[in-house]
Amino acid sequence: MTDLVSILDGNTFLVSDRRGDIEPSFDFPTGLFSFDTRFLSTWLLTLDGERLHALSIDQAESYSTRFFLAPGEPTHYLDAKVSVIRSRAIGGSFREELTVLNHLREPVEFMVRLDVGADFADIFEIKAARQKKGRTTATVSGNELRLVYRRDAFHRETVISTSEPGEIDVAGMTFRIRIEGHGEWTTRLHVVTVVYGARGEDIRATLPYGGSRDAAAIEAEQNELIARAPKLGCDCQPLAGAYRRSLNDLAALRYESIALGVRLLAAGLPWFMTLFGRDSIFTSLQVLPFLPELIPPTIQILGGLQGHRVDDFRDEEPGKILHELRYGETAGFEEQPHSPYYGSADSTPLFVILLDEYERWTGDSQLVRLLESRARAALDWIDTYGDLLGTGYIWYQTRNPRTGLPNQCWKDSLDSISYADGRLPGFPRATCELQGYAYDAKIRGARLARTFWNDPAYADRLEREAAELKQRFNHDFWIPEKEYYALALDADGRQVDALSSNIGHLLWSGIVDESRAGRIAEHLLGPRLFSGWGVRTLADDQGRYNPIGYHVGTVWPFDNSIIAWGLWRYGYREEAGRISDAILAASRFFDGRLPEAFAGYNRDLTDYPVRYPTACSPQAWSTGTPLLLLRVMLGLEPQGDHLIIDPAVPEGMGRIELLDIPGRWGKVDALGRSRTPTNHRP
Amino acid sequence: MSEAIERFFESLPARAPEVLRGLLSGALQIDLATGQETQHWLVRMRPGEIEVGRHRGPADAIWYSSADLFERLVTGEAQGVAAVLRNESTFSGNVVLFLAFRRFFPDPPGTRDPREVARRQTGRLA
């Protein structure tokens, strides 16, 4: 959505058009959102009854924007007698400084009108507009317009105030002003969003960080986070740009959970500004070598919200790690299941994997001991509720046919899991990468049990189960005539035989037989899967392949970072380097900010990565991608109390130097250099 | 105060070894309102143990609910986090205690084991 402008601070964000205006929209979430509620759906500026257009937009920061505007439609020759600057920032609340400049020598009178409205739509009501069940009222007092939404005890407010006096009505503000020759007029608008909780107070007033921060505080916090991260020096400009951008965006995506008072990472703007189990775990795995302090709150909250009962509406089972937590009206009134929703079959083994990986880097054994019962419950889930059919694999099938997710793996769109000929299998389904994660979780769980939980018998059992799973998997999922692993097993235990990027995740988890890894690497880098910009989600000769299909042909940067990690694990450094190089080259076309996904067209067809129409950006696990690729290229691997550094920098990338990598070793530096000099001019 | 709520609190000490397996400790006060009247319960949680009293704190967290909602929670008909999100129930203080305590709430009435359902559906169980 290049014609929209977004700013964000945690899960409060504002999306407007290029004039800075917001008009009610029910297809894309424009407006001011906080905690999954739209607090402004109209924010429309006119000057003497005329709309404005953008001369330029300054979007250097994630939390602030400045629009330079002039009245009327753009023409070739523009001789504006007046111009307008809207300078806005978000930090819990939203502030806009509105300035009108008179460019004539004589005084001029203007009527500045700002239409204001709030529909208090839940983010889930944006795509499917419906009549609100509660009531909205508007009241005017002094320099303030107050919009109130109530449904039973559910209570949200938007309070809009102006520093300069104006005529305020229930639908906006009018300023009749006179500006001297070459003079200007400014008013400061402040929009406060209120979420009422205990004893009629704003729920964020009781949170440690508070709801509202100004732009200076955000900037200071972002700078502090960036200062803590390792310093990158390199010849490759796309890498340097993507790294810097990623650190900025990671800082911007942190938010304070309304219910929990801890800083978590939101998954992606605009649809996913909340906690996802899978996304937060993968992002944590990517950023762990760089910003390990971001990880414990995520692990603890996922553990704290671990499933404890069988609840069909939420697809919840004892031991299961959540899929998605929302804070809005539809979750509260159980019109949607996100309180939290547990419809993912991978977040539970991934939780164990993250806990182990976190300890290996940081040596924080206290957290591993604290979460022992949670990790054991997660491991138990794999073999109990996870193994829906009792065949030794993780299966999924939603028990909430109305609002549950049919596909509970990372490719969670409707048509993502198909046979090679395009048919869709029935349910339940057992996708291949789930089995890889289960294998890895058992291996890592065994290390935790032996090292920290004083339970060698349990460790032995987990290792035995892992070995049996690997053997079984290599028998049941391998398609001998096609020489790759099936995407899934269907309900009858038959192979769902599409060639997909999921086989790369298998390398990452270590479930692939050594003898087959080479063939898998060839598939991943072969022309059917590799577009030149990265590995496609689905090979281009498969029935459902579509280069702009969400999970059936696009390239996902996050997916590629995990695949690169997997190739490295099996010793395919050159192949991992090619993927790293391709994704970093693509990032250049997105100003260093890798989107959720881009199109799967061949590189030689388009010369640039084609945007996916509704890709989220920034998206946490795309933001984490350059960081993981750096780890892969430098070969960073904790071993005991040391960090192994074994670089394999792709040809032409030149020098990569990463200073002050934090971990149980204190801080160390890593240096890598490709054998040939740089292609990328700095 | 309803019998279901009384029975629920009575059952907690025996269930604590199974439910409270983490290393969490702390006191949660539960305020249950019926009309103008409020009944107080205080639960002190430790690993594997819970102590139940019918009085106010000192507490690390307070959870406010109507007696009516709480009865739906202890019978599995309502769910705690959703109730907080719609502000029907509120809390202040250390949220981790609330998350731990909610583990005592049962399945919704009539819930079947999903494994049994799936295995019957796929003909793996007669």
TrEMBL record, chain A:
**Which domain of life does this protein belong to?**
Bacteria
Gene Ontology biological process: carbohydrate metabolic process
Residues in Putative glycogen debranching enzyme N-terminal domain copies: 8-189
InterPro entries (alphabetical)? 6-hairpin_glycosidase_sf (IPR008928), 6hp_glycosidase-like_sf (IPR012341), GDE_N_bis (IPR032856), MGH1-like_GH (IPR054491)
Give all residue intervals belonging to the Mannosylglycerate hydrolase MGH1-like glycoside hydrolase domain: 394-587
**Pfam families from the UniProt entry:** GDE_N_bis, MGH1-like_GH
Per its record, how is this protein called by name? Amylo-alpha-1,6-glucosidase
TrEMBL record, chain B:
Q: Which Gene3D superfamilies match?
A: SCP2 sterol-binding domain (3.30.1050.10)
Q: Cross-referenced Pfam families, in alphabetical order?
A: SCP2 (PF02036)
Q: Where is the SCP2 domain?
A: 24-105
Return the InterPro entries for the record: SCP2_sterol-bd_dom (IPR003033), SCP2_sterol-bd_dom_sf (IPR036527)
Q: What's the protein name?
A: SCP2 domain-containing protein
